[in-house]
Amino acid sequence: MVANWNGVFPAVTTQMREDYSIDYEATGRHIDRLIGAGCSGMIVLGTVGENCSLDWDEKIEVVRAAVAASRGRVQILSGVAEYTSSGAARYAREMKKVGADGLMVLPAMVYKADPRETVNHFRMVAAASDLPIMVYNNPIVYGVDTTPEMFTELTDVETIVAIKESSDDPRRLTDLVNECGDRYTLFCGVDDLIVESVMLGASGWVAGLINAFPEESVQMYELARKGRFAEAVDIYRWFMPVLHLDCCSKLVQYIKFAQMKTGLGSEIVRPPRLSLEGRERARVGVIIDAAIAARPRLAAE
Q1: 3-state secondary structure (DSSP) of residue 267
Q2: Interatomic CA distance for residues 265 and 214, integer angstroms
Q3: What backbone torsions phi and psi does residue 82 show, to the nearest 5 degrees?
Q4: How far apart, in whole angstroms, are the C-alpha atoms of residue 198 and residue 108?
Q5: What is the CATH number of domain 7-293?
Q6: Does the bond joining 148 to the residue before it have cis omega, within 30 degrees of 0?
Q7: pLDDT in the model for residue 27
Q8: Does the pLDDT at position 1 exceed 60?
Q9: Burial environment of residue 275 by CB neighbours within 10 A (0 to 12, 13 to 18, 19 or more)
Q10: What is the pLDDT of residues 9-51, one digit of tens each?
Q11: Residue 64 and residue 70: Cα distance in Å, rounded?
């Protein structure tokens, strides 16, 4: 299967109201804003989209809102983060019905599966629909590492077409290419490794802080993709203190806080997450404010 996925795919935030209900209209407007900035696709209901804090019906409506906001301009992928393999398969079938263009599939939540169980999980989800799949590998957060050898086992599953690599080790990209050749499209899944990842063969970026700084994110990626690394690094060095916020346990709160500060959304998160306060809010605010004050002048492309 050819999905032709490449470029910058924001991990889109799910916008909330004061009462923690979902603001579907604001989420749609934000997606429209990101498309206008030059993004190539959208991933809703990933970690940043607070997937595991939403009810089943809410998830379906978020995807409907995203599909409507896209109006066919970019592909919409939904995160698949359920507690069981059968639940993930059921969700994959539902995504086909509501018009999603693809899936970003996580391991089953809570249980730390062994390699055989992990491979079986991805096979079960893939068998549930014909939607193309990006496998999300984030062993640091989810405790399950899908290794290059495991991806070799999955090469016969035609709908698994891409890997979001978030092991926090750029060497893994080279290991994947050496193990699997060009079988999978590789995406960087760690904001503060994007330039290195493009140099090592990543064709795309699942980006978090793009929710707050969309134009800078897209231009930095495009410069790196074109091999203009010196220019990309100029933006990267300005951006790096903010990009580090993607690699913390409170990345959702940090990204939404940055989004609020740049005027692109609300900082409200759903419990058990809580919005930042006190010294932590002040510390993160200093980082974001410094980036806003020193925003680079972007070249016309």
Answers
A1: coil
A2: 13
A3: -105, 170
A4: 29
A5: 3.20.20.70
A6: no
A7: 98
A8: no
A9: middle
A10: 999 999 999 999 999 999 999 999 999 999 999 999 999 999 9
A11: 10
DSSP H/E element including 195 = helix 194-199
pTM: 0.96
Structure tokens at 254: 């940090």
Could you tell me which of 111, 112, 113, 43 has the C-alpha nearest to residue 80? 43
CA angle 71, 51, 255 (to 5 degrees): 85
Largest CA distance in the chain: 51
Tokens standing for residue 252: 């959702």
Q: pLDDT tens digits, residue range 134-188? A: 999 999 999 999 999 999 999 999 999 999 999 999 999 999 999 999 999 999 9
297: three-class secondary structure by DSSP: coil
The residues, any chain, with a CB within 8 Å of residue 277's CB and separated by 6 or more, are none
Cβ neighbours of 53 (radius 10 Å): 16
Instruction: Say how far apart CA 288 and CA 301 lie, in whole Å.
Output: 26
Return d(Cα 255, Cα 26) in angstroms, integer.
16
Q: Where are the domains of the chain?
A: 7-293
CB 263 within 8 A of CB 21: no
